[in-house]
């Protein structure tokens, strides 16, 4: 999936762009560091993750919320406006 296809896919999910964060291959794609990707991850709060999982039938990975788990995330993810409780791995 290229950047344009990825952006269209994200738009089709109809999520508030302030409620999730793109990481892994999707982030590289969005920053023009990669031309194509076959996987991306979205970090989000539990409510958004559950709604997305219900619509897409993708599994949710829940973060424990323990300091040692969240400490593994880069600082910008720990300081986001929404609480990160989960992630969904998008595989194309």
For the largest sheet, list the strands in their spatial order.
Answer: 1-2-4-3
3D shape: globular
Average pLDDT for all residues: 81
Terminal CA distance reads: 7 Å
Count of distinct strands: 4
Structural class, by secondary structure, is alpha+beta
Which stretches are poorly predicted, pLDDT < 50 over at least 5 residues? none
Number of helices: 5
For the biggest sheet, the summary is: 4 strands, antiparallel
Q: What fraction of residues sit in β-strands?
A: 15-25%
Specify Rg, calculated over alpha carbons: 13 Å
DSSP helix fraction: 25-40%
Query: Secondary-structure element sequence?
Result: HEHEHEHHE
Record keyword descriptors for this entry.
92 residues; alpha+beta; 4-stranded antiparallel beta sheet; 4 strands; globular
Describe it.
The protein is an alpha+beta fold. The chain is built from 5 helices and 4 strands; from the N terminus they run H-E-H-E-H-E-H-H-E. The protein has a 4-stranded antiparallel sheet with strand order 1-2-4-3. The longest helix is centred in the first third of the chain and has 11 residues, at 3-13. The model has no long low-confidence stretch (mean pLDDT 81).
